[in-house]
Amino acid sequence: MKRIVCVASFALMFALMASADAVVPFPTAGDAYCSATNGCGTIPAGGSTGFQWTAGDYVDSAIFVLPTNSVTDLNADWTFQDVLGGGNTETWNVYVNGVNVASTILPDCGYCGSDFTVTGTATFSDIAPVSGGYQISLVLQNTVPFAGGSVAWLDGGTTTLSYATPEPGSILLLGTMLVGVAGALKRRLA
User: Fold this and answer.
1) Is the pTM of this model over 0.85?
2) HSE-CB of 112 using CA atoms within 13 angstroms
C-alpha cells in the first residue's frame, strides 16, 4: 500500500508540472555567422548576416543559460531579407545544442529583396544544456545555383524556449510525501 501511495504521489507531482518560457534574442546583433562565399563575422546592430546561398552556411546564437535541465519547445520569430529567384528556395535546419528540431524553407520571391518573417513552434524531446546552456543554430542545407539568389538573416529576431517547472503545489506534495516516508521508516526501524 505504501509503495502505491509513493508511486501515485510522484505521478501526481509530475502531472502538476507547469511550463515556463524564456525569450532570447536570436538571430540578433553579436551572433556569429559564416557564409562560404561572403565570409564569417557577427551580425552588426541593425544589420544582417552576409548573403548566404551555400550548403553549410550558418548562424549561431550565443549560449543562453536558463534555469532548467531541459528545453522542449522552440518558438521562432525571425526576419530575413529574401533575394531568391529563378525558382530557387533555401532549406534551413534549426538546431538546439546540435539536435535538429525543425526546418524551414525560404521561398523564391522573384529576386524581390523584401523582408519576410519565419514564425512557428517546434516541439521536441527534452534537450539538456551543453557547456552550461543552450545554443540555437540555423544551417543551410542546399546550395542555390549561380544567379539563383540568396538570403540574409536580420538583427532583431527572438526565440522562445519552453521548459517544465514544478507547480508550488507539487513541491508541497513532494515535501509532504517525504515527511510521510521518513515517518514510516522511523516506525519500521524503531
Assistant:
1) no
2) 13
CA-closest candidate to residue 160, choices 67, 18, 19, 25:
25
Dihedral pair phi/psi, residue 108, rounded to 5°: -70, 125
What grid cell was written down for 188? 519500521
Considering the four listed CATH numbers 2.30.30.30, 3.40.50.1980, 2.60.120.260, 2.40.110.10, the one that applies to the domain covering 19-166 is 2.60.120.260
Q: Per residue in 52-85, pLDDT tens?
A: 999 999 999 999 999 999 999 999 999 999 999 9
